Amino acid sequence: SIGTNDLIQYTLAVDRENAPPGSMASEYSPAVLRSIRRVIEASHSEERSVSICGEMAGDWRLALLLIAMGVDALIVEVGYHGAGNPLVLAPGGIHETKNRRVDVTIR
Questions:
Q1: 107 residues of the chain, pLDDT tens digit each
Q2: From CA 44, how far away is CA 5, in angstroms rounded?
Q3: What is the C-alpha separation between 48 and 57, in angstroms, rounded?
Q4: 80 DSSP assignment
Q5: Which of 27, 53, 67, 106 lies at a C-alpha separation of 20 to 30 Å from 38?
Q6: E strand or H helix at 105, and its extent?
Q7: Considering only CA atoms, which of 33, 29, 106 is closest in space to residue 71?
Q8: 43 SS3 class
Q9: Using an 8 Å Cβ cutoff, are 59 and 27 in contact?
Q10: Strand 51-53 and strand 100-106: pairing?
Q11: At how many degrees (to 10) do helices 30-45 and 4-12 cross?
């Protein structure tokens, strides 16, 4: 399981809560996305699944990117699955895409 909030903070060496406007403290940082991709590839090569928790899992745009990258499960906080989110699912739901099933857990 990858906790994206800590991953971003440690990868970019910034406090995301107090980052100056326009800083590189972003979920879209190439370093963050590359780190996640490497974990997914290494885990899958060992036949291990990868889950994502943290704010990235709850942002539907990033969730779709994570699914495309090969993540096996998203753990989403209750406050992040509101109206307008195409990934709104019942707890224990499944998002299916390109013949892949991704478990989505809402805590």
A1: 999 988 988 898 877 666 665 555 688 889 999 999 999 999 999 999 999 988 888 887 888 899 899 998 888 766 555 444 555 444 445 554 454 556 666 55
A2: 22
A3: 19
A4: G
A5: 106
A6: strand 100-106
A7: 33
A8: helix
A9: yes
A10: unpaired
A11: 120
Retrieve residue 79's tokens.
């406050």
| CA distance readout (Å), 4 to 8, 27, 58, 90, 100 | 6, 8, 11, 23, 22
Rounded distance between C-alpha atoms, residue 41 and residue 71, angstroms: 10
CA distance 37 to 46: 14
| CA angle at 52 for the pair 47 and 3, rounded to the nearest 5° | 115
Residue among 75, 62, 76, 72 at smallest CA distance from 33: 62
Chain position carrying tokens 């406007």: 21
Q: How many CB atoms lie within 10 A of CB 10?
A: 11
Global pTM exceeds 0.85 = no
**Cα 50–chain centre separation:** 10
> How large is the greatest C-alpha to C-alpha distance in the chain, in angstroms?
41
